[in-house]
Amino acid sequence: MRRPLGVLAGLVTVAALGAPLGTAQAATTSEAACRVNVAKPRLGSKAQKITSFAVRRGCFGPALLRIRIKRAVPGRDPVVKSGATRNGRITLKINCRPGTYYAFATDYRGHTVKSKAAKLTCDPGDDATPTPSTPPPSSGGVGTAVENEVVKLTNAERAKGGCGPLEHDPKLRAAAVGHSSDMAEQNKMAHKLPGRPDLRQRIEAAGLTGFRAWGENVAWGQPSAASVVRAWMNSSGHRANIMNCRYNLIGVGAKKDGQGRIYWTQDFVTK
């Protein structure tokens, strides 16, 4: 039987928790962690395209991120291609022409970076591996397939609103899985379970410290990643957590109870 929307809305309404930044000082400290990284131009596997990308991480709120690929020549270096986004990550590709290239990225908020130069001959063996100063956020390699699907769908929703992608953190994921397991064991959906620690204590117990803001979404009974993310996005409290551009890490836990029903936890932090 399909779960009535009224019941789902009721469950979702009581299941959003957030801890906003308490002071301007905390916001200033967090903004200091904002950085822009850009990859050195490289050749694609078939040597037909030169590729570079830029990513913006650890920042409060969306901003215009622009990347330019330049070709080093005597005199003023021309811009071969330029692009911009508010989604936190952008990739540029250009047709290969032998020469020396570098990339330049900025978010117009004081974060500007230039990549190392790459001399490319359009030979597939030339510098085929990207070398960004910091790896881009990834939702793979941490958690189960269904948990990573929640991360993927959550980041897709954030991109629509101009927020950067969340990185699936193994420690934060451990906190989320532990809470989902506790909810399944007690057959109860709540942020604070009897005899169990609260959200901040759970995150710290998992080994994640130094975070400045945190939040949580929980749910029960949705059979898939798509259905639980859709339910959260249809609730103002949960949607606010998902669309909070200040968060940069996520942990997702999904555990079944004895009857096969899934208890979902989605934890967020700013670090």
Give a nutshell description of this structure:
The protein is an alpha+beta fold.
Secondary-structure blueprint:
Elements lengths: L4 H9 L2 E4 L4 H8 L3 E4 L3 E2 L5 E9 L7 E7 L7 E7 L3 E7 L3 E8 L5 E3 L3 E3 L24 H16 L6 E2 L1 H17 L12 H7 L7 E8 L4 H9 L2 H7 L6 E8 L5 E9 L1
Parallel strand pairs: 11-13
Antiparallel strand pairs: 1-12, 2-4, 3-4, 4-7, 5-6, 5-8, 8-9, 8-10, 12-14, 13-14
Word description of this protein:
The chain is built from 7 helices and 14 strands. The chain has 271 residues and is α+β, with helices and mostly antiparallel strands. The protein has 2 domains: 86 residues, Immunoglobulins (Immunoglobulin-like, Sandwich); 126 residues, Pathogenesis-related Protein p14a, CATH 3.40.33. A hairpin with a 5-residue loop joins strand 13 and strand 14. The N terminus is likely disordered. This is CAP domain-containing protein. Keywords: Signal. It comes from Nonomuraea deserti.
Distance N to C terminus:
42 Å
Widest sheet: strand ordering: 1-12-14-13-11
What structural class do the secondary elements suggest?
A: alpha+beta
Alpha plus pi helix count: 7
Q: What is the beta-strand fraction?
A: 25-35%
- Chain-averaged pLDDT: 80
Q: Which percent bin holds the helix content? A: 25-40%
What are the segments in which pLDDT stays under 50 over at least 5 consecutive residues?
A: 1-15, 19-31, 125-140
* CATH level-4 homologous superfamily of the largest domain: CAP
Keywords: Signal
Pfam families: CAP
Protein name: CAP domain-containing protein
